[in-house]
Amino acid sequence: MHDRVAGRAVLPGHGYGTEARQAVLHLAFAGLGAVCARSASFLDNASSLAVSRKVGYRPDGTERDLRDGEPVVSQRFLLMREDWEHSQRPQVLVSGLESCLDLFGIDGGAQTE
Ligand SMILES: CC(C)(COP(=O)(O)OP(=O)(O)OC[C@H]1O[C@@H](n2cnc3c(N)ncnc32)[C@H](O)[C@@H]1OP(=O)(O)O)[C@@H](O)C(=O)NCCC(=O)NCCS
């Protein structure tokens, strides 16, 4: 499977960001058979950094980006499948995935529950 990028914006401070990230990670690992997940957040985005750590990501170096034309540093994160499998996480149910697998460029998924 090729890399896929997901951007997120939710009403802050209600736990939705954590839930959304956990749902996407479940889709990636359990549904699509991903071997790892990557993320990145601007260093001044404290809530995004907190959510990444909370769902199990580990720091994976930094990168330089442009924000509104200005250079900024982002923290990269990496979550390996083994670490996700052993993490505390809510139960997630994925439905209807089989009919959209071709949109992800793969032939078959793993499990959905
Ligand atoms: C980033 C974003 C998705 C986070 O979603 P959220 O619903 O606010 O996050 P949650 O409520 O699930 O959890 C936030 C966590 O960050 C922590 N947090 C929030 N602000 C923080 C701060 N300034 N410093 C440290 N931790 C902070 C909270 O304490 C919470 O952790 P806890 O549950 O252990 O207490 C949301 O703020 C958002 O949509 N922001 C705008 C778009 C964006 O920046 N997207 C990410 C691009 S990489």
Characterization of the model:
The protein has 113 residues and is α+β, with helices and mostly antiparallel strands. It has a domain at 3-39 and 46-58 and 79-104: 3-Layer(aba) Sandwich (Aminopeptidase). 27% of the residues lie in helices and 25% in strands. It contains 3 helices and 3 strands, in the order αβαββα. It has helices at 16-31, 46-54, 81-85, and strands at residues 36-42, 58-67, 70-80. The chain has a 3-stranded antiparallel β-sheet with strand order 1-3-2. Strand 2 and strand 3 (70-80) form a beta hairpin. It is globular, with a radius of gyration of 15 Å. The model has no long low-confidence stretch (mean pLDDT 89). The structure holds coenzyme A. Coenzyme A binds next to helix 1 and helix 2.
Task: List its traits.
globular; 113 residues; Aminopeptidase; 3 helices; binds coenzyme A
Taking pLDDT < 50 over at least 5 consecutive residues as the criterion, the unreliable ranges are: none
CATH superfamily of one domain: Gcn5-related N-acetyltransferase (GNAT)
Separate helix tally = 3
CATH architecture of one domain: 3-Layer(aba) Sandwich
Give the helices and strands as they follow along the chain: HEHEEH
Percent range for β-strand residues: 15-25%
Rg calculated over all Cα atoms: 15 Å
Predict the CATH topology of one domain: Aminopeptidase
Total strands: the figure is 3
Distance between the termini: 20 Å
Mean pLDDT: 89
Structural class: alpha+beta
Largest sheet: 3 strands, antiparallel
General form = globular
Name the strands of the widest sheet in spatial order: 1-3-2
